[in-house]
Amino acid sequence: DIVVAQQPEIHYHLTPGTFKFILGWGAFGSPTDYFLTQIHYKHGDSHPKALCIGGNAVPPPPEAAEVYDLLFFETEWYRETISFHPLIRQAFGINSNIYHELPPKLDENGERVWEYDVLMVGHFLPWKRHGHLLQKEGRKLAVGEIYQEY
């Protein structure tokens, strides 16, 4: 993580009205949040801004409602953390119009056959604790991006 005090000064100019909306993805305190906060305060950018909160559970700074016109959250447990904001929406998840459950595989006795007993999806990062997967019984599958720095 980059500490805000260590982040470089942003030299930014955008003609007002260039975009209808600026959307960023990242946690509070992330480089995305830093950039959007800087263009709001230091450069007076008047474009509506939204943040898709992802990456971790860092609590929002007090000025989040002033910087962001809309906050997207991923999981219900985070809703309360940003409930101070006048416009929040749950996002992410599965598009059930495209993805749907397939009929289960059955054995000769009509019992369901599972390909995997445990499935873990997400980036391979130390705080995700993928090692706990090894303690589970049965066939295991972990899918995600591997970061070289970890």
Percent of residues in β-strands: 15-25%
Poorly predicted residue ranges: none
What portion of residues is helical? 10-25%
Mean model confidence by pLDDT: 84
Output the strand order for the largest sheet. Answer: 1-2-3-4
How many strand segments? 8
Task: Name the structural class.
Answer: alpha/beta
Taken from the alpha-carbon principal axes, the silhouette is elongated
Describe the protein's architecture and organization.
This protein is an alpha/beta fold. The longest helix is centred in the first third of the chain and has 11 residues, at 31-41. It is built from three helices and eight strands, in the order βαβαβαβββββ. It is elongated and about 65 Å long. The mean pLDDT is 84. A four-stranded parallel beta sheet has the order 1-2-3-4. It has helices spanning 31-41, 64-67, 76-79, and strands spanning 22-25, 49-52, 70-73, 88-90, 105-106, 112-113, 118-121, 140-143.
